[in-house]
Design goal:
This protein is an all-alpha fold. The protein folds into two domains: 81 residues, no CATH class; 230 residues, no CATH class. Helix content is 79%, strand content 0%. It contains 13 helices and no strands. α9 packs antiparallel against α12.
């Protein structure tokens, strides 16, 4: 075969491989292969064969050198050591987790409604019927909330403890809520629905009562910043639980056990991302939200930034890195 015909026959495949190898950057080839859909090992073997043919047929140095560069580069890409664990975790948090949340958007939308609709309903109801708060909480609990969000306090939202101690407490408390929300999905989704609705009622009940007695200002200044991460993480954990329950009810063509293992793997990844969000929320809650001395402009301004960042991360994270996303 003449060189011109040989090059014309394989030029498109060579250009595809060259473009792919340039695009892998610092990523492991397996990750790049999964994202871009190229069977790189097979293509690499084919290019090695082309190089051997080019040499045997005495093609020009330009063609042989080009194929040699592709083979050398491909060898480095194919046999490079895997990315360090911290790099894979970072890649998942930045890109993989948001993609997964978007992929499960139906469950996330339902979980959002289950949490926020009861919250809004309780807020509105207690605004017109303040006595409803007494039906949700005991008198002792209402007194405790009033003490925690008293405008005269220097540390709002808690009764005692140093910032570091409260950080640990918030982590354990938030993570336990998220885990219960996810695990409750094993009861055919009913448990996840219950946990989301109850948390919505409790949050709306606290906010409505404090608004009714004039303590709404300290309450909203306390929750508005860290809730960007905390409430969103609870929604995601709830969505994962609903997905788990839906798989138990309708496993599709898979056997129920296989479908449950697949949904459990997806749910575990969602809960891992939610855990990271809850640790961030606990840090903000302990070291920023509880400080009453900051002015409202700073409190609400920082909250607007955090809510925007969380929304942008979940909406845009990982886009453009995989076909069809």
């Amino acid at each position: 075969m003449k060189q011109e015909r040989f090059v014309a026959l394989h030029e498109a495949a060579w250009m595809e491989v060259e473009t792919w190898m340039r695009g892998t950057g610092r990523k492991a080839w397996s990750s790049a292969l999964a994202e871009q859909g190229l069977d790189f090992p097979a293509q690499y073997r084919r290019i090695c064969q082309h190089l051997a043919l080019a040499r045997a047929r005495g093609y020009s140095h330009d063609v042989i050198d080009r194929l040699q560069r592709m083979v050398d580069h491909g060898h480095q890409v194919l046999y490079r050591p895997p990315a360090p664990r911290w790099h894979r975790v970072g890649e998942f948090i930045v890109a993989g987790f948001p993609r997964l949340v978007r992929r499960e958007w139906k469950a996330m939308l339902i979980a959002t409604a289950l949490l926020y609709l009861p919250t809004i309903a309780c807020l509105v109801l207690i605004h017109f019927r303040p006595d409803v708060a007494g039906m949700i909480f005991s008198g002792h609990k209402l007194d405790e909330f009033e003490q925690m969000y008293n405008p005269a306090r220097s540390k709002i939202g808690r009764t005692s403890g140093t910032d570091v101690a409260m950080f640990g407490f918030y982590v354990l408390n938030n993570v336990s809520i998220a885990f219960r929300t996810f695990a409750a999905g094993l009861f055919f989704g009913v448990g996840a629905i219950y946990v989301l609705v109850v948390n919505g009622i409790l949050f709306g009940g606290i906010a409505g009562h404090l608004d009714a007695i004039g303590y709404g200002g300290p309450f909203w200044r306390f929750v508005v910043a860290h809730s960007a991460f905390e409430l969103t993480a609870i929604v995601i954990a709830g969505g994962a639980g609903l997905r788990l329950g839906d798989t138990l009810l309708a496993p599709g063509r898979l056997r129920r056990g296989d479908a449950l293992r697949q949904a459990g793997s997806t749910g575990a990844q969602l809960v891992l991302g939610a855990f990271v969000m809850l640790v961030i929320a606990a840090f903000i809650e302990a070291f920023w939200s509880s400080v009453a001395a900051f002015p409202d402009s700073l409190k609400f301004g920082s909250a607007a930034v955090l809510w925007t960042l969380v929304g942008a991360w979940l909406w845009l994270g990982g886009r453009g890195r995989r076909r069809g996303d």
